[in-house]
Amino acid sequence: MGIVITGHKSSAILDCNQAFAEMLGYSIEEMCSKRSVDISHPEDRKLHVDDVEEMTKGKKKITKIEKRYLHKDGQIVWAEINIYFSLNEVGEIAYDILMVNNITAKKEAESNLKISERNFDILFDKAPFPLAIIKGGRLIDINGSLCQLLNYNSKEKLIGKTLIDISPEYQFCGSKTINKIVNQTRKITRGECTNYEWLHIDKNGISIPVRTYLNAVDIEGETYALALWHDLRKEKEDQNKINDLLDKLMLKNEELESVVEQRTIALEESNMDLTRSNKDLEQFASAASHDLQEPLRMVSNFLQILERQFSEKLGDEGRQYIHFAVDGANRMSKLVESLLQFSRLGKAGNELRKTDLNNIIHSKVLDLSKRIEEKNASILLYELPHEVLCEPNQTAQLFFNLINNGIKFNKNENPQITIKSEEHQDHWLFSVEDNGIGIDQKYKEQVFEVFQRLHRKEEFEGTGIGLSLCKRIVNLHKGEIWFDSEKDKGTTFYFTLHKN
Prior knowledge:
Beta-Lactamase; elongated; 12 helices; five-stranded antiparallel beta sheet; alpha+beta; 4 domains
């Protein structure tokens, strides 16, 4: 507690204790150089003077006041002060004695409480959802949103009503309203929180479905219920529409099930026909290949025998004709073999399994070793995934064709092929890059079609089915294939293989 002694008339501070000096941030010496009004808040200076005058006139024996002092740093310090007089030998007032308690914390708490109460009142009244404070089933306070919900134009007409007054006699479940209110009131009395669907009636007697949320709150030692209502009219209306739609959908679903059943039967029959047709086509392709290859070989062989036995009689022009015929027969044989290979892709029995692609590439590079050596080509293979879900033979054919094309369609003295992979969330992306002649982007679809060639056979050998096989293989793996290219600067083929 701070103690201060001041002159009765001058209000000069004659002495004080250390507690009072520290309360305002001064030393005792600094305090004794000031007057009481010097350290008082400007608005409270006269307050002290008036109380002292009343005591002097005998109207008060002792006075107790609350006032604001100013701390040395300018902060306000609230104090509770008891003022006493000290008399001299002749009975006159010699000086005033002030007993000072610091109540700043108390004042700040009171101020914060007022702000909190004011904010609660604002939030309560302006809340966009209906709120009420209930005691014993009666509305003690409500906000504007509840008035709006129940079609009342003022709070006063609702405050004081009971929940029974604003509810129909029976609720959703058929139970009496009064019984349900009694049950909910018991829960609140026990301090429980609860929520339930409820029917209210508005000012005009129209039923309003709501969901009510009740929370027990303690106010000055008494239990109240804080109630919040959620208007269910729109939800009920939407639910009725949904129910109507569901009924219609059920009927439509029954009709669709009948249609699906009929079409499933038809599809199964079509699938059986297609399976038989595919089997017939496979047998035909195999037989046709064999039947076509044999006469082609015979034509080629007999022409070559003819050339050997009658070379001198044929002359240069005759030998050239035989060369053209043999070359045509050989190319026809390759086309038939390629076509048979294309038709066999996707045939049952080609199962996907985890495969090390590095081993596949090394195997195909060995198969191409003669061509690589002849063309002085180099293969740069980055580390590929060791486990990729694929059909090994088809994937090997895919890489073989792309590497072979990169070497074949290349006029550089040192063809270079670079093979990379890149992991993505659900797939692998592979690239095969070459430094060859490139492909015009206008042929980005045409190059993947069967027997489509962009160059004369005199320039580059082949049947025109290699990239078609590549696309077919990638499609069977549910992937995609494309390329980026620039004329005379090379081509990069990209394709994806799914992880699952």
